[in-house]
Design goal:
Blueprint (H helix, E strand, L loop, with lengths): L2 H27 L6 E2 L12 E10 L3 E8 H12 L8 H17 L11 E8 L8 E7 L6 E7 L1 H8 L5 H9 L16 E4 L7 H5 L17 E5 L2 E11 L2 E8 L5 H5 L1
Antiparallel strand pairs: 1-5, 2-3, 2-4, 3-6, 5-6, 7-8, 8-9, 9-10
């Protein structure tokens, strides 16, 4: 498995979970600083006994990951939710905290992870797990007292699904960088005509002659399908129509292959 693609996919999942959990805890427990994925990739230092949950995904994304909190960090957080001092964390407190985690997991279905398709999430508390060898993404809410630290551990099946959109990114980047751009320098100022294709339709000569004011020609493209940008008959980009200062424009959302390759091949 491509390690870079694996990290990108896991970080995307962790960022979506961190945002969902931050929103839930901010509303319900007064968390003042959002959880963020740490840049150094190091797991937070253990702060008391761990509280662990298994997140199971089914559908377009399938597999498992585990989220780990620490008891000593949850007491002060829950005090803001129940408006009472907590001298020691009880099972009832842990069950109450579980509701926040469940709500955060449910929000994953409306996060950036929807790019993968539809999936369902289930959460269950677990205990006594050892995560040796698993891929870990740590998150921290800096500035809180005590500092809140959370770890996400990914098993292989979920990592594979998360990394699939990023697979080969390094190879594509290397391919683009290897294009001999200096060969294009002589023609960089040449003006070219490009055209947008909203769709097409094959008509008989009889149908063309029957066209008149008010006639409607149905195209082969649905309303929400991307518009295609062509250069000399070659597709170079896709996107969506926008209006710029009263003129039609194209916001590019996809470039099938490096534009330079159309000139060099």
């Amino acid at each position: 498995m491509d390690s870079q693609a694996r990290r990108k996919g896991a970080q995307l999942f962790a960022a979506a979970f961190a945002q969902s959990l931050s929103e839930v805890l901010s509303e319900g427990a007064g968390l003042k600083r959002p959880l963020e994925v740490t840049e150094d990739g190091n797991s937070p230092a253990a702060a008391g006994a761990p509280i662990q949950y298994r997140i199971q995904l089914e559908g377009a994304l399938s597999g498992e990951c585990f989220v780990e909190f620490y008891e000593s960090q949850l007491g002060p957080l829950l005090e803001g939710a129940i408006r009472q001092r907590i001298s020691s964390l009880t099972d009832e407190h842990k069950r109450f905290f579980s509701k926040f985690v469940v709500a955060a997991v449910k929000k994953l279905g409306t996060s950036a992870l929807t790019k993968y398709g539809d999936f369902n999430c289930k959460l269950e508390p677990v205990s006594g797990l050892s995560f040796g060898g698993m891929f870990v993404i740590p998150m921290v809410a800096s500035g809180t007292q005590p500092e809140m630290a959370v770890s996400l551990y990914f098993e292989t099946q979920l990592l594979s699904g998360l990394s699939s959109p990023f697979a080969g990114d390094e190879a594509k980047g290397a391919s683009a960088d290897s294009q001999p751009a200096h060969n294009l320098n002589l023609v960089m100022d040449v003006e070219l005509n490009v055209s947008l294709r909203f769709g097409k339709r094959v008509l008989s000569l009889r149908d063309v002659l029957d066209l008149g004011s008010g006639s409607v020609v149905e195209l082969d493209r649905m309303v929400d399908d991307p518009i295609e940008l062509y250069l000399d008959g070659k597709l170079i980009a896709r996107g969506e129509a926008v209006v710029v200062d009263g003129n039609y424009g194209l916001r590019v959302t996809e470039i099938p292959q490096p534009v330079a390759s159309h000139f060099l091949n």
